[in-house]
Amino acid sequence: MKLNNKVAIVTGGGRDIGREVSLKLAAEGARVVVNYANDAASAEETLGMIKAAGGTAILHRADVTTPESVDGLVSAAQAAFGSNIDILINTAGGMVARKPLLEIDDAFFDQVMDVNFRSTFLTTRAVVPHMSEGAAIVNFASQAGRDGGGPGASLYAASKAAVMTFTRAMAKELGPKGIRVNALCCGMISTRFHDDFTKPEVRQAVANGTPLRREGRPGEAADVAVFLASDAAGFMTGANVDVNGGTYFS
Q1: Per-residue model confidence as pLDDT tens digits over 167-216
Q2: Which of 76, 162, 210, 230 is a plausible cystine mate for 245, CB 3.0–4.6 Å?
Q3: What CATH number is attached to the domain comprising 61?
Q4: Structural domains counted in the chain
């Protein structure tokens, strides 16, 4: 197994793409800290799936938009699996709501930036001191960070563009320490995100306009994330990898 005994933290790891990432990391031999914020039932189900398959994992509830909670997440990982952390995968994030410019107040601005960009910054800052050469960080950006997103998604797109730039910056800063940093820019993946924020007719139109003529599956995005976390991607850093079925070319 290519990740045997490596310690991995997955933010938002209890459902959708995060669940698939957690399952695949564990299947490759990693010891996984499955972080979740609110959906305890989904997180418990994910933990049960990992253990049923013979994997090793713990759950830890944490709001990754606050420094104290992130510090607690890191401490929980170390208490369970030792001081060194090998992999950080930041899947936590969300749109919150679709709002045009003139309906956006300061509180909404802060909320969207916090859940998508501040969370990535805080976890990276907290975990890097406990990483050594060969460690990897994988962030989840979005196709929206490249193309500006759909109607009412300006802040979501901007926050994900910030994740993309932060990924490049950290690749430069942490590269001399042997720590790689990459990101995924996912397009239309079949998750609760699009169940909540994208109309069915829009989803169908996007799928029809995709060269592969379908939405992506969470496991397909997770496969790329686990690859980027592994030594198989040992000479990849600073990349924002498109996972969108060909709807947009960077």
Answers
A1: 999 999 999 999 999 999 999 888 877 777 678 888 888 888 889 989 98
A2: 210
A3: 3.40.50.720
A4: 1
Q: Provide the residue range defining the domain that includes 110.
A: 7-189+218-235
Active site residues: 156
Say if 134 falls within a structural domain: yes
Q: Is residue 123 part of a domain?
A: yes
Contact 73, 122 (CB under 8 A): no
pLDDT tens sequence across 151-164 = 999 999 999 999 99
Question: Tokens in use for 166?
Answer: 């932060």
Query: Is residue 243 in some structural domain?
Result: no
